[in-house]
Amino acid sequence: MSRSVGSLASCCATFVMALWAGVAQAGQGPQGPDQGADQGQALAPQISGIPACFDTNHVVLEINNIQVAYWKTTTPNQFHSRAHVRGPVVRIYNDHAGHNHMSVQIGSTADVAIELIYNQEFGALPEVVVGAEVETCGDYITSTAQSGTYPASPDGAIVHWVHRSTRPGHESGYVAISGVVYGY
Predict the structure, then answer these.
(1) What is 3-182's CATH superfamily?
(2) Percentage of the chain lying above the pLDDT 70 cut
(3) How far is CA 145 from CA 34, 68, 81, 104, 153, in A?
(4) How far apart are CA 126 and CA 62, in angstroms?
(5) Where do the domains of the chain lie?
(6) Given its phi and psi angles, is residue 71 left (phi above 0), alpha (psi -120 to 50 degrees) or beta?
(7) Which of 24, 48, 84, 109 gives a 20 to 30 Å CA spacing to 67?
(8) DSSP state at residue 46
């Protein structure tokens, strides 16, 4: 193996292990398509009353903070998938066009975060404060550059459609703030 390929492999392994350690320290089990309880990891208990989150095939999607953090650094602008993340609010952004915007930490540090965008047409949110615990289910989009009229996210990725679905064939989402579900 050449030195540059070996260095790249070492760098990626270090990044994944650091991310893994940070999520585990935050009290979240390693979740994602090939990670979870079947690997002997204890999952944090779900906050009671929170609905199931489904992927595009209507399969239950467990908390996938690690997968989402990985997508942020490895996928092209406008990559789409489903996300089910949990973490503290680390920044509140200005509301825009009838939507609440906030940054939710999904890794070991505040810069490993995703912008959550909530449509106020599905009900008002309480006043959200930094430190509030959030769990959300919705559509993930890598957002590192402007796309049409939408600017790049300050966090490099968003999760939106975090409300009941109004479109047949599109899975619903939700936002739970301190254990109370909104938009569902």
Answers:
(1) Nucleic acid-binding proteins (2.40.50.140)
(2) 74
(3) 29, 18, 17, 20, 8
(4) 25
(5) 3-182
(6) alpha
(7) 48
(8) P
